[in-house]
User: Fold Exocyst complex component from Callithrix jacchus.
Amino acid sequence: MERGKMAEAESLETAAEHERILREIESTDTACIGPTLRSVYDGEEHGRFMEKLETRIRNHDREIEKMCNFHYQGFVDSITELLKVRGEAQKLKNQVTDTNRKLQHEGKELVIAMEELKQCRLQQRNISATVDKLMLCLPVLEMYSKLRDQMKTKRHYPALKTLEHLEHTYLPQVSHYRFCKVMVDNIPKLREEIKDVSMSDLKDFLESIRKHSDKIGETAMKQAQQQRNLDNIVLQQPRIGSKRKSKKDTYIIFDTEIESTSPKSEQDSGILDVEDEEDDEEVPGAQDLVDFSPVYRCLHIYSVLGARETFENYYRKQRRKQARLVLQPPSNMVGLLSSLFSHFYFSLVSFDACVFFVVEDHILHTTQGLVNRAYIDELWEMALSKTIAALRTHSSYCSDPNLVLDLKNLIVLFADTLQVYGFPVNQLFDMLLEIRDQYSETLLKKWAGIFRNILDSDNYSPIPVTSEEVYKKVVGQFPFQDIELEKQSFPKKFPFSEFVPKVYNQIKEFIYACLKFSEDLHLSSTEVDDMIRKSTNLLLTRTLSNSLQNVIKRKNIGLTELVQIIINTTHLEKSCKYLEEFITNITNVLPETVHTTKLYGTTTFKDARHAAEEEIYTNLNQKIDQFLQLADYDWMTGDLGNKASDYLVDLIAFLRSTFAVFTHLPGKVAQTACMSACKHLATSLMQLLLEAEVRQLTLGALQQFNLDVRECEQFARSGPVPGFQEDTLQLAFIDLRQLLDLFIQWDWSTYLADYGQPNCKYLRVNPVTALTLLEKMKDTSRKNNMFAQFRKNERDKQKLIDTVAKQLRGLISSHHS
Assistant:
């Protein structure tokens, strides 16, 4: 049973599947029926399916037959109608054939006209095609013509752009034409021609920059100078108490005329024609004077041509050569003195180097990669090293401070100009500090000559004034105040001579000269003040001191001149505080500031005054020696004189007149000079009395010598110089006085008895001196009294002399033991 049921179920499923396949066959296109039939043959019941298919076909045939039977009468009717239409159609055909024949006959002329029209249309189409081709070629020809025009007018960069468009845009569209091939073959030649011409323009540009560098450099420096002047006006501070006039323009600009052959040649060379402008008008920028278009064109052309690196290398190489030429002095300067060499060398180099680096800086900022900062820094370092080396070598020989100052101004202007463009200039300012020391030395040498002339031309006498105008003029030149002198009526005299105000003003001029060099060095007020004070100290302690010492040590200088020098240096010493104030006013640095250098003028003038004082003492002693050389004593005379020797009277008169001149000297100086003169006179007289050449002397000679000493003592008592206490000055002659009194009074008993006691009468008499003089009198007595020895008195006197001499020897020997 179960098997029967399963067979029945499978039979139903197969029948349903066959039914589905038949419906799919009926509803599916014939082209897609293959998969359906394949599924039938893949199964096992295809025989049963064929039976089903045959049954379905028979069913469809019966339906078709039924349908045909239903429409058969209509079909017959249609055939009948169709037969009728065939006859009418034949008639219509005949009519159409007849009409066609007539139409062909009538349209023969139209066909001919149409053939002609066809030819015309063909020609028209050919013409149109030709025009189209010509229109396609015409832009190429126009571009080529434009290219040639641009080449002729030297518009090389537009020409290169035109060539690029021609090669890449226009020629590919007409590349099959022969003339295009000619153009293509000429393109490399044109590129080379553009490169050569643009390179030639670049060479002209580089040459013109070198040729016209003075004009461009002058403009760049004027620009920097204007900016610096504006900065100085903004930063300028009023200086309290300063009487200095406005600063002079110390900058030297060498105006050089540039002659040009023609406006075209000047423009082509890269230098624009700029008319001279008035001083109050704005100076054009240095870049405004230069036409950089040749550089830009050449750079763009080589960049487009793919040879930018070649151009950069060539440009840098040429500019390096130019930099070396800029720093090389012209051949016509080789014979110049070194003092002039540095000045003119840098005046030329400053313009050329300034132009060189201004141009390079502009190229750096207006092009991309033609030059770079490392390249410019390398050239700048080379330029700095060569310039500084040349200046150091030759500027050291420069002996003119004006040339050194001009050189400094050029260096400052050059440094300020390039500093505006961002170049480091610290080395230049460091070198200026070195030149500053050299400048100070040249100033010292110059002022040594000035001081020497002032001191040599001075009359060393007080300045006479006869009017109030002259008095105020002198007081205006030198800070001097004296109430008593102001109260005196004209004519009157200043205590100092003319070299005092002259030296004082020259010291101020020296300070001004030092200040000129320090200007625009970007130094602080303290640094400027320190520089001025140090240089002024060198002027005072070395230059002025040496000049004064040389004058003081001159052989032919007199006592009057020495006295006046002492007076002058005293007043100059007092003026040092005014010099301190003067420096403070121009530098605005108070002297109380820490580390402020003090002026050594006081020491300088004190040393000079002391040297003059010593020279006075020496000079007085020399004069005394000259008078003493006139002494002519008769040491063997027996006559007693009644007056002093003539030479001594003249000497005393000289001393009186000399000390009268000392009234304006400080008291101690006059007193010291007087005391020194008296001591020297006393010592010289003692030496004259005891000298070995005087072997014998008489009591009469001692009496005459005593009169001369009394004359000296009278001079000392008269007070030739005020300020001495009582008999202080007489003490200079005390040794002589006691010695002479001892011999003239023959008071040997007192001398021998009191010798060695602190209050003895002849305390200043030395036994050796007394013995020497006694020996000379002893020999005289023996020689002149050969026969008097038979007299009792003479014999007693000789015995007394021998006894005193023996006792003196005993004193001397006991003293030594």
